[in-house]
Design a protein that fits this description.
The structure is a homodimer. By secondary structure, chain A is of the alpha+beta class. Chain A has 2 domains: about 1-85, Arc Repressor Mutant, subunit A (Orthogonal Bundle); about 85-140, Dna Ligase, domain 1 (2-Layer Sandwich), CATH 3.30.1490.190. Chain A has helices spanning about 1-10, 20-30, 35-40, 50-65, 105-115, 135-140; strands spanning about 70, 80, 90, 100, 120-130. The first copy, chain A, is globular. Chains A and B meet through helix 5 and strand 5 of A and helix 5 and strand 5 of B. Chain A binds a DNA duplex through helix 4.
Chain lengths: ~140, ~140
DNA sequence: CTATGTGCAAAATGTTTGCAGACGA
DNA sequence: TCGTCTGCAAACATTTTGCACATAG
């Protein structure tokens, strides 16, 4: 996995730096869809001198070479996902977490919808909103 | 239509002001899903003294009473839609326009997906990305 | 060695807030 | 009249940019 990031960067003419590998590692190791600031905070211990600007610049490269996808689940910031498969996301309106919705096959729906539009469809993003299991528990126990 | 906005506002304890009616009118009269700034610009001629802050505050009220829905199709700003029906949106990656995808029944897909998650689902938003008919023409003729 | 990348600080952008005067009910 | 609303300006949060120094290749 790490090796392939190195190769992907080199192949596209980007230099391989510790910062870039570290930022990708954070994204690859989590399912929490962190924002730039969350990534930055995660790296403060290991890379205390890293700047937020570097996080943004690196994410832009990772997106460009197809290693991360960009999410906006209606928040005031973007979140990033190293899982670039087509999968819906769901945000808890109570605690704000954003989860993957695995095991949902979107291809049939996407195909059907693509037929009904005069656009040439190149991609899509599905967001669901609701209350996560943890917050359901908190609400019912209050 | 206008009358119902008046009533909706009054019923919820909000005052009816020319600014609020004007902002809703702009949204109700268009399918272009304007951002706050686009609404503000639209109203410059008729309401030269209106402030952007008023646009934001009003939109928040309209959202709260269910008269508009908030969109974020991956841009750096929010867009607003007075059509609160469940319908997907599609953004042209070339010119940036955001269109409705009418005539798509999402209920079956939503129902299926809702079954597969432990979240309690309360809503959803589907965004497609592609190239609009106008831009397809431009690209092929260049 | 050279071109690209990093980190910092400043700028830009979109949105929110506080408050004095205006106005709807 | 009274409480809410407007418009302004300042504050805020996120993201982008410019540039001197550092570093990958």
């Amino acid at each position: 996995m790490e090796a392939s990031v190195t190769n992907m960067l080199r192949d596209k003419g980007f230099k391989v730096t510790p910062q870039r590998l570290a930022i990708y590692s954070v994204l690859a190791a989590t399912k929490s869809h962190p924002s730039a600031e969350m990534i930055f905070n995660d790296l403060q211990t290991l890379y205390p001198t890293m700047s937020l600007a570097t996080v943004y610049k690196t994410i832009d490269i990772l997106r460009e070479i197809g290693l991360v996808q960009v999410l906006n689940a209606g928040e005031d910031c973007f979140r990033y996902d190293a899982n670039t498969d087509d999968h819906p996301h769901i945000r808890c309106m109570s605690c704000g977490r954003v989860d993957d919705m695995d095991g949902v096959d979107v291809s049939g729906f996407v195909h059907t919808v693509s037929q009904t539009t005069s656009y040439q469809v190149t991609g899509q993003q599905f967001y669901f909103y609701g209350v996560c299991p943890d917050c359901q528990g908190k609400i019912s126990s209050n």
